[in-house]
Design a protein that fits this description.
Layout lengths: L6 E6 L3 H11 L3 E7 L2 H11 L3 E4 L7 H12 L4 E6 L4 H10 L4 E4 L3 H13 L4 E2 L4 H9 L12 H11 L4 H8 L3 H15 L4 H10 L7
Parallel strand pairs: 1-2, 1-3, 3-4, 4-5, 5-6
Helix pairs in contact: 2-3, 7-9, 7-10, 8-9
Length: 216
């Protein structure tokens, strides 16, 4: 980062104390252009402020962090999304990086030591993975192919497919997962394309076959 240049950062986390802590950690070298407490608020502020980096929690009220990351690519394409999450599970990490296209992933337990470096890295157009997350990604990349098709689904896709198998329509899926009906429908179409399934009945059969629901 050039001398005198302050990176414009938007903070998105539903906990006020966490946002205050992030502001304290980044305030010396970054300009905090806004703070959001929900996915929808993050989208609104990103459109208004056009930050260079958006520090984004995954678990927030409303559409949530992952859905927000998907929308941010269209709303503020120049902004780099840095996930800051309590979760280091492989499904969360892979879904954020591969499906939502975020620029970096940082676990909250690593935040104090790594946050400033992570923000600078993604602002420079590079990808950043925290020490906790990097081995997970490398393990996934080195894993042999040919696994069961069900293993290709992200955590969210499994949740959507399970609800489809239980007979839920897009509005009900949206309500139960805390996402918008449009996002629920998008997940449904993505599942059909990814699994090469042409009907709801085929999706139900797939969900039963892969034990996402019981065939009572």
């Amino acid at each position: 980062m050039e001398t005198g240049t302050r990176i414009r950062v938007l903070l998105a986390d539903d906990h006020r104390l966490m946002r205050e802590g992030l502001r304290a950690l980044l305030g010396a070298q970054c300009e905090i252009v806004g703070e959001a407490a929900s996915g929808e608020e993050a989208l609104e502020l990103a459109a208004k402020t056009r930050p260079q980096v958006i520090v984004l929690d995954l678990q927030m009220p409303g559409i949530g962090g992952l859905a927000a990351a998907h929308h941010l690519a269209a709303i503020s394409p120049a902004s780099k999304v840095l996930v800051l999450s309590q979760y280091s599970d492989e499904e969360y990490v892979v879904e954020a990086l591969a499906e939502a296209g975020v620029a970096g992933y940082l676990v909250k337990t690593d935040a104090a030591a790594e946050l400033a470096t992570a923000v600078q890295t993604v602002a420079a157009g590079k990808r950043y993975l925290s020490p906790t997350v990097a081995p997970i990604v490398l393990s996934r990349m080195n894993r042999p192919g040919g696994a069961d098709e069900g293993a290709k689904l992200t955590r969210r896709e499994r949740e959507v497919l399970k609800l489809i198998g239980e007979g839920a329509a897009a509005k009900e899926i949206a309500r139960r997962l805390g996402i918008s009906p449009k996002t629920a429908e998008a997940h449904r179409e993505n599942l059909k394309n990814k699994l090469n399934l042409r009907s709801t009945a085929a999706m139900v059969r797939y969900a039963i076959k892969h034990k996402l629901i019981r065939d009572d």
